[in-house]
Amino acid sequence: MAGQFAGYQNEIYLQGYGGTAPPFTTDATRLEAAAAELMGPEAYSYVAGAAGSGATASANRAAFDRWRLVPRMLTDATERDLSSTVLGTPLPAPVLLAPVGVQSIVHADAERATARAAAALGLPVVLSTASSTSIEDVAEASGDGPRWFQLYWPNDPDVCGSILSRAREAGYTALVVTLDTWTLAWRPSDLDSGYLPFLQGEGMAVPFSDPVFRSRLDKAPEDDLPSAVLRWISMITGTDRGWDALAFLREHWDGPIALKGIQHPDDARRAADAGMDGVVVSNHGGRQVDGAVASLDVLPEIVAAVGDRLEVLFDSGVRTGADVVKALALGARAVLLGRPWVYGLAHGGEDGVRHVLRSLLADLDLTMGLSGHRRITELTPAVLRRA
Ligand SMILES: Cc1cc2nc3c(=O)[nH]c(=O)nc-3n(C[C@H](O)[C@H](O)[C@H](O)COP(=O)(O)O)c2cc1C
Ligand SMILES: CCCCC(=O)C(=O)O
């Protein structure tokens, strides 16, 4: 197990392609700057953008900086095993690819490229309902790789049931239900460019390939795109359902379910009361409520509230191996990574995503070893100090 991921460091040195030379940088900030040059300005703003002033997106990063690792010496951490099981899925390391919609605006290979890169490393993709590739096509690209499905919850029960049964059929094992985006937040960069990919029919592959959704339309999406898009948007927006409605999902999904976008311990308790298997502590990467609390800042209290009843996953702001260690030490079962691999996709499709994931895993592996930790279970709050 030693160097299972750390070996990528040697590979880079030996081939002499570190820094900003080809193929790609290993630094998250430079990666984003380079992606900005490669992507169209609208697509870049959409991916990088945040709600409002960007206060929550910045707070997500600042929260990591308030915790520091305390490395331990002579612990014999040369042999390391980062493996873990998350919502029933055995993983080589507790890292998943966060659900990210409309990947066609980033690269022509879109979700297929991402699925292949993730599968090569044994990390799960969480396929977005707002995908630009269908459930079945991504399953095919993912092959034997682990895959989960993220639901934007249609208020038409038959449409919802149809999408869920397609995902189960196609081998997606866990369901992530996103609750924090029942309407899009105020996002100035997209408003200023007047850019919303959905209105151009991007990110519609899941509903448009669904027979039940199609049966709800007067005209097929191929004949009347705007009406089909608006019909779908009207189905997934609104907050007419309450906690009771989770019973419907429990009935229609026989695998684990996690609720994404949880930020209050009482909501986490309600998730546990409703028979959910997990929550994802997340503020959607600062894309929804501007001024919302940093995701990492609420993680400990949510773990304290429900950590013994369900699995607590985490996202928003993870960029480095040390960030992963900090989130796991504060009680996360696993972390989801968002924007960085999307920038990798912009750089080089499947290779770019793989590079970003391998870089993060190598950094995580080295940070674990150099801090004196061999296993994920050794990460507890005791390995951190407040800065
Ligand atoms: C371009 C983009 C699209 C996203 N699309 C979705 C989505 O379709 N469903 C969802 O649950 N979250 C979506 N998210 C949120 C991510 O799943 C995740 O919560 C967030 O990106 C994590 O923060 P990070 O980017 O700082 O790592 C999206 C994020 C970005 C940047
Ligand atoms: C319906 C919104 C899908 C994309 C998304 O979640 C985001 O842009 O943050």
Automatic annotation (TrEMBL):
Coiled coil: none
Residues in FMN hydroxy acid dehydrogenase domain copies: 20-387
A Pfam short name: FMN_dh
SUPFAM superfamilies xrefs: FMN-linked oxidoreductases
Protein name (Swiss-Prot/TrEMBL): Lactate 2-monooxygenase
Superkingdom of the organism of origin: Bacteria
Binding of glyoxylate, residues: 46, 152, 187, 260, 284, 287
Binding-site list for FMN: 99-101, 128, 150, 178, 282, 315-319, 338-339
Source lineage: Bacteria, Bacillati, Actinomycetota, Actinomycetes, Pseudonocardiales
Residues of the active site: 284 (proton acceptor)
Family, similarity comment: Belongs to the FMN-dependent alpha-hydroxy acid dehydrogenase family.
Flavoprotein found in the keyword field: yes
Organism: Prauserella cavernicola
Transmembrane segments: none
Gene3D superfamilies: Aldolase class I
Assigned keywords, A-Z: Flavoprotein, FMN, Oxidoreductase
Gene Ontology MF terms in the entry: FMN binding; oxidoreductase activity
